[in-house]
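User: Sequence in, structure out. Go.
Assistant: Echoing your sequence, followed by the structure tokens.
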Amino acid sequence: MYNYQFEQKMVDALLSIDLVHASLKGKTTHVALVAGESDFVPAIEVARSESASVWLFHGSRTHLDLWSVADERVQLTNQFVSGILR
């Protein structure tokens, strides 16, 4: 049989680099981020300093620093997700 292993490395760092790069180059004005940990805080701060608007889509347990740096916040509740899937 096949033995597949999924390994996730540096994904947050790579996404942060993309966010910073796009905002510094003026290639983005709006960002939608699905996250809950504070790893993205520095990248969001850079994006906002370059006039990008950051929407945070989060679960019920979101790091306060992450929540506080976003321009808009949307909690991903069952009701919200069900409404999207219709």
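User: And one key feature?
Assistant: The longest helix spans residues 11-24.
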